[in-house]
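Q: I have 177 residues here and want to know how they pack in 3D. Can you give me a structure?
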Amino acid sequence: MRKLILGLAVTLDGYIEGPNGEYDWCLTDQDYGLKEFFSRIDAIFIGRKSYETAQQYADSNNGETIPGMPAVTEYVFSSTLKSVKEGAVLIAENSIAEAGRIKEQPGKDIWLYGGALLTAAMMKAGLVDELWLSVHPILLGSGKPLFHEQNSRSQLTLLDSKTYETGLVSLRYGINK
């Protein structure tokens, strides 16, 4: 079965966005393991807000949503969008069941790209298999937290860690099920 990997940038104090939705604090001066990560995936799960932000970015960057990312199947989870770009798949109903069905299909792993609501739902349903967190050396003090209150504990196993000269620390954890 394919793994669902929550992979994202987070501040040391646990925020994935600043108080105004900004992510200008993310270090982008080097690869930080993205090329290797991209070789592991062939699909992406993305929520409506993150999808719209990514499309705005792509519109001003020659259609490229994430620099260096190969073509992948995008699954957009939204109950309000009526359509998505060509080649993307809109999932408007039974999100958790559909995500589970997609995980069972043959293929490479799946990147859970964001947003906060989608991440919380996937975590609560036990669908996330791995966390790949790029911890940035900054304290924002406020913003959108990575994790919200959970109903239970999640035990993790450290799979890999790497420290970069910039102070960014890449952490990969498996979620014990």
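Q: Anything worth noting?
A: The two ends are 14 Å apart (CA to CA). The mean pLDDT is 93.
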